[in-house]
Amino acid sequence: MRYVDEFRDPDLITKASEEIYRLADPERHYRIMEVCGGHTHAIYRFGLKDILPSNIELIHGPGCPVCVLPMGRIDDGLAVASNSDVIFAAFGDMMRVPGTHGSPFEHKARGTDVRIVYSPADALQLARKNPDKHVMFFAIGFETTAPSTALTLIRAKAEDLKNFSVFCNHVTIIPAIRAILDSPDMRLDGFIGPGHVSTVIGCRPYEWIARSERKPVVTSGFEPLDLLQSIVMLLRQLQAGEARVENQYKRVVPWEGNRAALKVMAEVFQLRPYFEWRGLGFISQSALKIRDEYAEWDAEQRFPIPGTRVTDPKAAQCGEVLKGVLKPAQCKLFGKECTPERPIGALMVSSEGSCAAYYNYEHRKAAAALVTSISSVA
Amino acid sequence: MRFRDPQIEMAHGAGGKASRRLVEGLFAPLLFESSRAPLGDAAHVRISGSCVAITTDSFVVKPLKFPGGSIGELAVNGTMNDLAVSGAKGLAMVVTFVLEEGLPTSVLEDEVRAMAAALHRAGVTMVGGDTKVVERGKADGMYITTTGIGHLMPQVTIDTRSVRPGDRILLSGPIGDHGITILLARGELDLTADLSSDTRCVLPLIETTVEEAGPGIRWMRDPTRGGVATSLNELARDCGLGIVLSEEEIPVRDEVRGACELLGLDPLHIANEGQFLAVVAPEYADAALNALHQAEGGENAFIIGEVRAEPACAVLVTTRYGGSRIVDMLVGDPLPRIC
């Protein structure tokens, strides 16, 4: 099995699409939220909306860990980095996210030492190689990336590496989903559950959505056939009046999650009493903080952090788009003041951001609606 | 369009939107104001009644050597290819070297030998050059610039204004090899693959295409930094038409696809150093493709799409199952995703 080609087989995709058309009740309007930003991108990248019936509405959820970070946290991280002895290390996805005084890349052009790393272990290696500098890893992500940050901190402590710290912005997915369901603006029929977060936390944490909220959840992979199959599974449940958690992404997601990963997370992190999320406000017990045993490697303990609270520009509607209340194109700034070149919010530059997905893959397709019904070109 | 960015960033050199803004908003209005033609790969200049093509390119690749080639080879092939896709056969080149203090002579000599071999293969002569040396730390080993001149092939006229709906898009071979090879050669990623740069002089293949389909060729380009996506978006904008590609027809090696999937990159945005795109009138397209398939190095050429009226000024990629997506130019360098 090649793991990609089979799940992009055009004939199987066409069959799955036909099954969805068969299952969808024409009298009903289905509102399904895909929580994860990676799913949003996959949906647009593979043009899946072109092969779904119009009464299935896919609503983009807040599963983009860069997008939900308030601008003040980026400013805080860059404030530490403005110290000439500090190397600011982060994933590539962070580099064009706007802070109040520019993005990390813009700071780099002005002289701040900003480096892209592909894993926190790379940041640790940077610290080993640059003993006269301090490397601060700006950690972001849901539970997906938290275990590797945890392992890196364990290693840093074991080596007693003095010139390394982590600025921790890890957040947890369940409180975000809870905030969506608590929101009076939201009426949803079901969820396409996060794919990669679930490899760590498993499928059990979603059971309350099925039990208490009576909405089905299907954790899904990222290939077109994965997403279509997940929609088939959701429609089947909705038709039968059921509400269960199902796992479509069995080849990667274990039902019980990854015990070892959860263990290291518990060893290194504890929950913050509350944390501010862009668009969702302050949510209690929704973000991770480094435990006191690792205080020496906690950037928030090592450095004075300004703790700036920055509200988004008034006209920007990042919050509503994050909650799924607005579609990206409905934000007043979309495509005009806010573009991937000149982003107002992270949603327009993050690889998980729904505005970026819509802008890059979709928004000029309206004129090309006539094209999509035409088959192979060459 | 005025260039309003307060400082230069890496994105301005990546061949995407930021680069275009810099060229169109700062360089063009101040330096090229007397030129009315859209900016192409080479300029055509009238000198005493004859038309001469001229182009220049600088090479700052890191690392200097990589599987399949090195900076010296790129410097010769890149400039020859820019001339070739503008419909010109390169005749002579000049070169400038900016060398870093401390560069081992053996490294320099290797590159000069590589250039000599590439010049010989391309059938072009180096007729002059200049050398500067800068302090340690100011040039990353070496930077090379080459400028080439050539005369136009009479059978072909490149003009974006002649592009029509129904014209076919021809691609000479698999995309993404060069960019991914460089990315892996930097050693920052824990990835290996059996890949090498596709750097080569495409003049022979272009001559073959011109011989077979000359009157039908509307436009050509070599998709370097920014990839096929950038080149075709520039075409779409310049001619005001749309381009629709068929995803399954675009040749990509498995290794390139795999690396791109892992890193969240699109092969359409990755640099190539040995390929060209041609827009060919439909009545000539099949003959051009067949001629390429018979020629050495053209076996993997494909017709990957066609020009349409809509979506105007944009590039659309369609799949066999009916899905489609817009492919735009990137702002700057592709960035890997986080999860």
Which helices and strands, and how do they pair?
The complex is a heterodimer of chains A (378) and B (339).
Chain A: H1 10-23, E1 30-36, H2 37-45, E2 56-63, H3 71-81, E3 86-90, H4 104-109, E4 113-116, H5 120-129, E5 134-141, H6 146-159, E6 164-170, H7 173-182, E7 190-193, H8 196-201, H9 207-211, E8 217-219, H10 224-239, E9 245-247, H11 259-268, E10 269-271, E11 274-277, E12 281-284, E13 288-290, H12 299-302, H13 318-323, H14 354-361
Parallel strand pairs in A: 1-2, 1-7, 3-4, 3-5, 5-6, 7-8, 8-9
Antiparallel strand pairs in A: 10-13, 11-12
Helix pairs in contact in A: 1-10, 2-14, 6-11
Chain B: H1 17-31, E1 43-47, E2 50-59, E3 65-66, E4 69-70, H2 71-85, E5 88-100, H3 105-122, E6 125-134, E7 142-152, E8 168-171, H4 177-185, H5 203-213, E9 217-221, H6 227-239, E10 242-246, H7 254-263, E11 277-280, H8 282-294, E12 302-308, E13 315-318, E14 324-326
Parallel strand pairs in B: 5-6, 10-13
Antiparallel strand pairs in B: 1-2, 2-7, 3-4, 5-7, 8-11, 8-12, 9-11, 10-12, 13-14
